[in-house]
Amino acid sequence: MSELTDELADAFAEETDDDTAGTAAENVAAFAEQYDEDLTAEDVRSTFEKAPYDEFPRQFNWLVGELAVENEDCTDSREFRLDGFGDLAADPEIGA
Known about the structure:
The protein is built from four helices and no strands. With 96 residues, the chain is an all-alpha fold. It is globular, with a radius of gyration of 13 Å.
């Protein structure tokens, strides 16, 4: 695990169970690796605190959307959300 993953897993564990916190932290680290290498745990926590929802899954998915909005290269943030693309989403491999 990266330092970012470790720090975020600890922070998210205050909001949800350890498994969900670990998955969320790994998803943010994957986003950072692909789109924003300068992303810090403090940046993530600061943005997360602004989430307009009470439930962790919705707060986290909102966070991922906000991170994507701030990065013009990320046009689809669903792969980094807790549920990924979801059951009703088109297969991202089709047409690739």
